[in-house]
Amino acid sequence: MVNGENPFVPSNLQIFASSQFKSNLMAELAPDFSKVKRVTTNTLGEMKEHGVKISMLTAYDFSFARIIDDAGIDVILVGDSASNVMAGHETTLPITLDQMIYHASSVVRAITRCLVVVDLPFGSYQGNSKVALDSTIKIMKESGAHAVKLEGGKEVKESVERILSAGIPVMGHLGLTPQSIYKFGTYTVRATGETEANKLFEDALLLEKLGCFSLVLEKIPAALGGKVAQQLKIPVIGIGAGGSVDGQVLVMHDMLGITKEFKPRFLRRYLNLYDDIKKGVGEYINDIKTGDFPNEMEQY
Ligand code: KIV
Questions:
Q1: All residues at 6 or more sequence positions from 99 whose CB lies less than 8 Å from its CB, including other chains
Q2: How far is the CA of 77 from the centre of ligand 1 (A)?
Q3: Is 218 assigned a catalytic role?
């Protein structure tokens, strides 16, 4: 076998072993990760090694987390997007540590298989690594979650180091980092210019070197997402970062069509629950008003 050739492909067919072909083949030959009883940070690393894509979705409460875990998701992110979709705030900034713990503990009570990662909320880790560690320990103790996620690179280096030194797995988050929205000014695509792209790349390398087990890249050019994923050994999970990363994450309310107005290009809606729920509730109201509900079978 010539160096670099795919050992599973006959030598006369090596020319067809493009990177897409190789990753499809790797995924086909990989262990069946859907049979894994508990997804851990190590499982995610093994999935990347075998070219198996990682699925991640947000959840914030017991009932939805139970369905999502039962459907076979690899990772539930208890995102600080709870501030938007659960509490109705315009940004992720107002949500508190105790509110994140409330959401995370509800999710943890529901799941049996997936890994649960919790966002450290704004103000709970920036600037002071001791505060960062205290916040993280409180989340881990009071929610039972498995890992935390925080936004930023070099600026949060000390906080990342301190949390990791306590044995707590950390997921990084670069690109569009919503907790910095007032610095950015808009929610447009990040790192389109060379300077910001270079910084993102350096930050990604740094987070891996520090010991983060995974990295989220949000709303950046697909080519940059692919470059980072190729360079890093840890899994890179994208939201609007293209298809060449190691997995995808979406906000549950967006992919289920519970939110209506939010329509970024990266979002694929799988259901239209806003309209479905509205229709169901409308029928319920009508049945009450007309006296159709409850009928004889629905009473004692
Ligand atoms: O809070 C969140 O939902 C997130 C995802 C967008 C990655 O951080």
A1: 82, 87, 121
A2: 7
A3: yes
